[in-house]
Amino acid sequence: MTNLTASYAVFGNPVEHSKSPDIHQQFAEQTQQAMCYEKKLVPVDAFDSAAQSFFDDGGLGLNITVPFKLAAYHFAAQLTERAKTAGAVNTLIKRDGIIIGDNTDGCGLLRDIRDNLQWPLAQQNILILGAGGAVRGILAPLLAANPQSITIANRSLKKAQTLVEQFQPLADTGSLSCLDYTELNDKYKLIINGTSASLAGQLPAVNSLIYHQAYCYDMMYSKSTTTFLHQAKTSGAQATADGLGMLVEQAAESFYQWRELRPTTKSVIASIRDAM
Ligand code: ATR
Question: What is the 155 CA–ligand 1 centroid distance (Å)?
Answer without folding.
Answer: 8
